[in-house]
């Protein structure tokens, strides 16, 4: 269930004003033949788009910093004009997918595995991936007194955030590549895979209940602050050190009925990522301020300073890596061979990128026709 639901006021406009003019003039018609709203005029005048409001979901994680910063600085709301931004936060992918299916949210930032599972379980009827957000930010961190080399992981107790989640799939695939055997359902085998909520993983590490964890940021850096060591950065396992960790999804119904609103959110995402990459220190502070609002306290400097550099913020959804992650889940026995054709609709994102004079991003053959 959502941890927090709120309406976002228009704020942080100074930060938005400091942005360079990243997006050129957009055509007065919206994405597709249905949209008739002048989206550029909406952002400039505060006029309402085709929907009174849009409900956005994301996680209070640094790998969702595009959402944290875009929300905190009012960038999304500025692009939406008079259409009200309503935000809900989630702690797990399945609950966000349930909210999307139930119509409680319209657009969400989410990891690849929940997006794949949601799409396949609905037989391709519930969502589309419409953009990227982040790459990387996942590490294998271990107790250095017990594990000194990668081979030492065998026989140890390693936590992942959730059965079948993105990091769980990645770790099971890595184990398989090592030639070790683990039952994907029970987590028992040559390595004991313990599915542990990220909130309690640091305490489990301090108590000695686990010997390490394959986890996203900031959990990895929280463990490091408790004396753990980074043994492996998952990005080193991927071509070009890039793999999708956070996507932007939308319900197909909302995309069909309100393409102008989806385009506005994507334009906000693109502007936010540009600002994050141009002003990393300010962006880090902004994300931490939003995390403080959500959790009651900010991340410590040691934790956020260790976590932030390992996350790359990108508009490209890195579609080829989504297919690879689906293949890993099939290999682990967590997923039947999925048909992912149609999971992407990158037309609104590519329209925004084209207006900025940037190249289009590919869908790896998995887009709508």
Q: What is the 3D shape? A: globular
The major beta sheet can be summarized as: 7 strands, mixed
Q: How much is the radius of gyration in Å?
A: 20 Å
Order of helices and strands: EHHEHHEHEHEEEHEHEHEEHHHHEHH
Mean pLDDT: 89
- Tally of extended strands? 12
Alpha plus pi helix count: 15
Which strand order spans the largest sheet, edge to edge or round the barrel? Answer: 1-3-2-4-11-5-12
Strand content: 15-25%
- Low-pLDDT stretches are 8-41
Task: Describe this entry's structure for a reader.
The structure is a single chain. By secondary structure, this protein is an alpha/beta fold. Helix content is 39%, strand content 17%. The strands form 2 sheets. It has a 7-stranded mixed β-sheet, sandwiched between helices.
């Amino acid at each position: 269930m959502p941890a927090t639901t709120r309406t976002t006021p228009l704020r942080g406009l100074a930060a938005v004003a400091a942005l360079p003019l990243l997006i050129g003039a957009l055509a007065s018609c919206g994405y597709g033949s249905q949209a008739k709203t002048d989206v550029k005029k909406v952002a400039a005048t505060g006029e309402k788009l085709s929907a009174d409001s849009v409900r956005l979901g994301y996680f209070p994680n640094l790998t969702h910093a595009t959402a944290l910063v875009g929300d905190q600085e009012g960038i999304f709301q500025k692009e939406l004009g008079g259409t009200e931004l309503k935000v809900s936060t989630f702690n797990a992918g399945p609950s966000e997918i349930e909210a999307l299916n139930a119509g409680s949210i319209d657009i969400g930032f989410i990891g690849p595995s929940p997006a794949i599972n949601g799409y396949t379980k609905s037989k391709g009827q519930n969502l589309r991936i419409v953009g990227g957000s982040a790459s990387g930010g996942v590490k294998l961190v271990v107790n250095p007194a017990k594990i000194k080399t990668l081979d030492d992981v065998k026989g140890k107790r390693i936590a992942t955030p959730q059965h079948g989640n993105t990091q769980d799939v990645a770790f099971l695939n890595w184990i398989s590549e090592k030639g070790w055997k683990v039952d994907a359902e029970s987590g028992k085998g040559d390595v004991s895979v313990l599915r542990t909520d990220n909130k309690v993983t640091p305490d489990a590490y301090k108590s000695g209940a686990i010997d390490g964890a394959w986890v996203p940021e900031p959990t990895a850096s929280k463990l490091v602050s408790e004396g753990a060591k980074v043994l492996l950065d998952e990005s080193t396992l991927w071509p070009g050190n890039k793999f999708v960790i956070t996507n932007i999804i939308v319900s197909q119904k909302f995309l069909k009925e309100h393409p102008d609103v989806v385009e506005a959110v994507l334009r906000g995402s693109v502007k936010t990522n540009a600002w994050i990459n141009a002003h990393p220190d300010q962006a880090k502070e902004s994300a931490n301020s939003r995390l403080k609002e959500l959790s009651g306290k900010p991340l410590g400097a040691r934790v956020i300073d260790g976590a932030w550099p390992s996350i790359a913020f990108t508009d490209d959804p890195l579609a080829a890596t989504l297919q690879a992650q689906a293949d890993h889940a099939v290999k682990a026995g967590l997923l039947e061979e999925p048909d992912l054709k149609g999971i992407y609709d990158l037309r609104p994102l590519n329209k925004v990128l084209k207006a900025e004079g940037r190249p289009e991003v590919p869908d790896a053959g998995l887009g709508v026709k």
